[in-house]
Amino acid sequence: xxxxxxxxxxxxxxxxxxxxxxxxxxxxxxxxxxxxxxxxxxxxxxxxxxxxxxxxxxxxxxxxxxxxxxxxxxxxxxxxxxxxxxxxxxxxxxxxxxxxxxxxxxxxxxxxxxxxxxxxxxxxxxxxxxxxxxxxxxxxxxxxxxxxxxxxxxxxxxxxxxxxxxxxxxxxxxxxxxxxxxxxxxxxxxxxxxxxxxxxxxxxxxxxxxxxxxxxxxxxxxxxxxxxxxx
Length: 231
What we know:
By secondary structure, the chain is of the alpha/beta class. 45% of the residues lie in helices and 14% in strands. It contains 7 helices and 6 strands; from the N terminus they run H-E-H-E-H-E-E-H-E-H-E-H-H. It has helices at residues 5-31, 67-84, 106-120, 152-167, 184-188, 204-210, 213-228; strands spanning 45-50, 89-91, 124-132, 143-146, 177-178, 193-200. It starts with a helix and ends with a helix.
């Protein structure tokens, strides 16, 4: 039986709602407090930055897959999860494009405009989604960089990584790192900011996982759980 597109959409929304309700209930039970009393998130908006886009494909997987595509899929799923859970969120990009002004140098303008977007959102935190690459193909696992400019950034990074390790990467031994000036947005951002390097596209096994829709949803769910755990 072929399910009409409208019904498929309703089923998808229903499933996301159930998952988020279950997550919030579990977190509330574990902490004996409602998720929505989260002090860090109180009144805040989560700005989600899907790294790269358009001509800027980011890094490439061992099979030629583009980072920009994976970043956007995880970012969009995270956005859906946050909104269903009642946490306000915005996407810096929701399609395959860069954010630059005609006549300006593309890469520089894109970075400046992303930072301007973040600064335009009142009372926000930044979650930037990226993928990693390294010459040693055995390297794998999520790692998070955090802004040195706001003390809450490290707490967000630690909570998200703990959630990722608990839910989908129990053998991950990586530690988070403070950003230096090579990560422009994190280095310049004044709001709590982290960059989630979800995995290594240079690792054959992880590269395949990162392109899997279920794993992308699992990663977004782990990030959501890390955010909600910040009581």
